[in-house]
Amino acid sequence: MRPLRYRVRPGSWETAGATVMEGGVNFCVLSRYAERMQLLLFECEESPDPYEVIQLDPRVNRTFFFWHVFVENLPEGTFYNWRAEGQADLRETGSRLDVEKALLDPWATTISDRLWDRAAASRPGDNVETAIRGQVLRDDYDWEDDKPLFIPLSQAVIYEMHVGGFTRHPSSGVAHPGTFSGIVEKIPYLKELGITHVELMPVMAFDAQDVPPKTASLGLENYWGYSTHSFFAPHPGFAVSAGQARDEFRNMIKAFHKAGIGVILDVVFNHTAEGGAGGPVISFKAFGNEIFYHLDFEDRSQYRDYTGCGNTMNCNHPLVTRFLIDALLYWVRRMHVDGFRFDLASALARGEDGNPQYHAPVLWAIELAPSLNRAHIIAEAWDAAGLYQVGDFPGYRWTEWNGRYRDVIRGFVRGDPGLVSEVATRLAGSSDMYEGRHRLPMNSINFVTCHDGFTLCDLVSYDHKHNEANGEDNRDGHDHNLSWNCGYEGPTDDREIQRLRRRQARNFISILMLSQGVPMLLSGDEVFRTKRGNNNTYCQNNELSWSDWGLVESNRDVLEFVRAMIALRRRHPALMRDRFLTGQPEYGQTLPDITWHGTRLDKPDWDDPTSRVLAFTLAGKVEDEPPLHVMFNMDGVEHTFELPVIAGRHWCLAVDTCPEGGLVVPPEAQHPLQNPDRFAVGAHGVVVLESRSV
């Protein structure tokens, strides 16, 4: 055996991953059943074989389940993998140790997937030439004076976006399309739009090859990124230089913060890219299959799948909980992010036996961790196995994507009758779901569209999904869309249908911005972007999914309307209350904080199964804030609404969604209504009046 190029020492188990220290690099990973461990070192990311293999001695390089070694004077930039040797035992322990597989460090902060071959990692045999590799890099980034922002969610307007798709289209005009750097060039656009936070779809390194075989045969890939394999590393495909992905991400964060915009990451802790029993061995399966995943009770070679993705992370195992908390702390402390949205978060509420736990350790650890107490935490409060926790997610700080808000508002705007009572509840912050548990309106993340489903344009243009391009015979994606095509399926030259669709889009935006809680917009909705009826573009890394920047001009009327509605919301604190409405005067006001109406004052149609109209008067929350009067008419005919009289004040038109292009009148251009007693709201229309002193 030839002598090693580098001297080695036992190293430390206290710092996982590859850590550059004085005099060398400390390596540490976790494996319970491994009997021997090898560290493989590569000169570059494309080296077919390691130039150095370091054998770890369990007598000196193992502490509890942790394997560790210190390599003296190892050059920065070195690439590395691990091999774990031991007895596989699928039936009894669930161990999938396989010495032939080159394993990725789960704690790697920079990775290379240039040689990656998912198929080679899925079949028996050595895959050292095609494995994903970690890279050793010093962390000496200069943050200057940057810190995570703390913008209260009560004041937030969230914008959900895909890092690659936001600037990948040729029309973006950025120097580096589809990258963190490309987004930096578009921050002025986002600033002018008026949003306070971006919510980035997955940026933790993911497997783009993780798609069904037929989908792959069409040349498609996992575009959305809900297939994470590295929870500490930014996705290299979003970087100009893969080896600089970490710092390029930080540059983007710093630029967002300088613009006063917070960054929320969509994190996928419910499953990994390794899939089920036939999926690839990347890291967790070999290092600790029985620790990291829910395994079948009777046959531990099989996986319990609560996610629909082949496996489910065993999040409430103590070691996995620690791993996930450490990942969150890393992204807050070292990457300066401002919060997290947790995909299929109810999977995290399942105990090691698979049953829901209200006091799930990982959820309460996230809730109570002091270093996360200023980070926003947002749950997609359901999973793929039927656990639905919207309104009942554990904890106080946890906010939730409010799926009930989405569904009720969609039904109301398309004209479903008899919904006005629940619509009022959703508009008022969903107190039925949150107030009884001492939570607040800001616990409700209100949305009409998100990445998963129709865009706003498609919501008003299609009655049915059209996902044939995905290669799954249109079986994928949701069927329950609560959409309305306004009389014709898909594109049409009929001007009346086109006008109605844009009016419906304005109605959705208006209702969203007039609701208590936290509004979230889907990227591209502000310019009426279509995905041609495909409601599951997870595999479409092409112009179907990319943001078309030509729409900024061709659909400028929609863009200007969205900007104006965000501005109206942000100048009215009464729309951003941090406590629930009571129907009583408060804050020194003489008006009740809210009064509900139908077409007649003080007579809302709570019990009318045919009603499609609702109105309310909202008092100001702070001194000199004018009251608002809002009228919704989702009927197919015009309705005339009675207007309340407020002594010493008159009503001015602020918003009307019915005129072509919509009408939003800024305060300085408003004039008193000619008829102060009543107002006719057109079919499928929303009108907002602002009160001014006489």
From TrEMBL:
- Which Gene3D superfamilies does the protein's record reference? Glycosidases (3.20.20.80), Golgi alpha-mannosidase II (2.60.40.1180), Immunoglobulins (2.60.40.10)
What Gene Ontology biological process does one annotation of this record name?
glycogen catabolic process
Q: Name one Pfam family in it.
A: Alpha-amylase
**Which InterPro entries does UniProt cross-reference here?**
GH (IPR017853), GH13_cat_dom (IPR006047), GlgX_Isoamylase_N_E_set (IPR044505), Glyco_hydro_13_N (IPR004193), Glyco_hydro_b (IPR013780), Glycogen_debranch_GlgX (IPR011837), Ig-like_fold (IPR013783), Ig_E-set (IPR014756)
The Swiss-Prot or TrEMBL record annotates one GO molecular function as: isoamylase activity
Domain of life (superkingdom): Bacteria
Keywords in alphabetical order: Glycosidase, Hydrolase, Transit peptide
Task: Determine if Hydrolase is one of this entry's keywords.
Answer: yes
Tell me where in this chain the Glycosyl hydrolase family 13 catalytic domain is found.
160-569
Protein family according to the UniProt entry: Belongs to the glycosyl hydrolase 13 family.
UniProt-listed PANTHER family? GLYCOGEN DEBRANCHING ENZYME
The protein's name is Glycogen debranching enzyme GlgX
